[in-house]
Design a protein that fits this description.
Strand content: 35-45%
Structural class: alpha+beta
Number of helices: 4
Number of domains: 4
Radius of gyration: 45 Å
CATH architecture of the largest domain: Beta Barrel
CATH class of the largest domain: Mainly Beta
CATH topology of the largest domain: Elongation Factor Tu (Ef-tu), domain 3
Distance between the termini: 103 Å
Largest sheet: 12 strands, antiparallel
Order of helices and strands: HEEEEEHHEEEEHEEEEEEEEEE
């Protein structure tokens, strides 16, 4: 009896332990099943209809900026630099002194030239007196004709010496003036390429001054684009598409607020690249644009009729292609590949893959996949054309 009681007691303990572990597991399983039966909320997205409107078509070309006039500042005479009279990077005016060369040797040369001129003038005076005195005497045969001829030739030589001395004075005066090296144009002066005390000459560049308002913009267009821009109308007159005011997109992607104008077309096509260079000029108040900068010139070349546009946020780039998410039946997302055209303002032209009136998801695209149920909300969009 005692053994049976012990066995039953152990069995009760065993059952108690089994219930202790099995019941919680069953409870968790039932909880998971109940959770699996709960419907998760749909994804909320913003949708809008694709816009259909006429869109201007633009072409863009890589552009290089350069000064409207670039003047290299070089001295006309040789000497030692004794002063720099401008602030590097500042705006200077035509005729403003930028550097000074030691003027003392040139002042001495001018003084010597003036002395030689005075001697030549004195000699001319004496020769003139001799000729005036002996001319009537030679007529009276009081003086030989040979002597008068010699005096006349001496006077002519003295006159030539005076002219030469005057030229020497003018040259010495010019050399003295050139010791003050001035700017040739109005513009922005560059960094000095020499230092105080350097010996300079006409072969040495001291600095450069560039006129940057307006500023020139160079950009190459292909031969095909150039010919399309020069095509003839039905009346036989050339239609110049490049007459339109170009826009300038800066290196940081911002649009320069002022439009330019085309100045000229280069004389020939580059045989290495098959392009021809065009030159435009842009106003540059405040000298914000500087020579050497890069950008892109954009010109409207045509209009695309009844183009379909969607906000740029609706277009997703995947492995070199593009796709959009549409709102399908039963409010489920449909992922559709598209062919994207050019951007205009905040919109993107879709060339293929969309139909007028299609509802596209413009916000929340990253949260949906093909077939994802969504809760659509209307989004306000505005097509922008420039």
């Amino acid at each position: 009896m005692k053994a049976l009681a012990a066995f039953l007691g152990d069995r009760q303990n065993f059952l108690f332990l089994c219930l202790l572990f099995v019941v919680p597991i069953l409870g968790l399983t039932g909880c998971d099943r109940s959770r699996a039966g709960i419907k998760l909320p749909d994804t909320e997205v913003l949708v809008a209809s694709a816009l259909q409107q006429d869109v201007p078509v633009h072409n863009e070309w890589v552009a290089t900026l350069d000064g409207y006039v670039n003047a290299e500042i070089r001295p006309q005479v040789s000497g030692y630099i004794i002063s720099q009279d401008y602030k590097e990077g500042s705006v200077v005016r035509k005729g403003q002194v930028l550097f000074e060369i030691d003027p003392r040797p040139f002042q001495a040369a001018l003084d010597r030239a003036k002395g030689e001129l005075a001697q030549a003038q004195a000699q001319l005076g004496k020769s003139t007196i001799d000729v005036e005195r002996d001319t009537p005497l030679a007529a009276q045969k009081a003086v030989s004709k040979e002597k008068l001829d010699t005096e006349i030739q001496a006077k002519l030589a003295a006159e030539a010496a005076v002219a030469s001395a005057k030229a020497a004075v003018e040259r010495a005066d010019l050399d003295l003036g050139w010791t003050k090296v001035t700017s040739l144009v109005d513009g922005v002066a560059g960094i000095a390429e020499i230092q105080m005390g350097n010996l300079v000459g006409p072969s040495v560049r001291l600095t450069s001054v560039s006129q940057v308002d307006p500023i020139k913009v160079y950009f190459p267009v292909s031969e095909q684009e150039y010919l399309r821009a020069k095509h003839l109308t039905s009346s036989g007159q050339p239609m110049e598409l490049f007459d339109t005011s170009p826009e300038l997109i800066l290196a940081d992607g911002t649009l320069y607020p002022r439009r330019g104008k085309i100045l000229l077309t280069d004389r020939q096509v580059d045989t290495n690249t098959g392009t021809i260079r065009l030159v435009a000029a842009f106003p540059n108040p405040g000298n914000i644009l500087r020579p050497g900068q890069y950008g892109r010139v954009r010109i409207q070349t045509s209009f695309k009729k009844d183009a379909l546009l969607v906000p740029q946020s609706a277009v997703k780039e995947i492995q070199g292609g593009y796709q959009v998410a549409l709102l399908g039946k039963d409010n489920r997302a449909i992922i559709r590949p598209v062919k994207a055209g050019e951007k205009t303002g905040t919109m993107w032209v879709i060339d293929e893959g969309l139909n007028p009136g299609d509802q596209v998801i413009v916000q929340g695209v990253e949260k949906v996949k093909d077939g994802t149920p969504v809760v659509p909300r209307p989004a306000k969009i505005q097509g922008e054309g420039r």
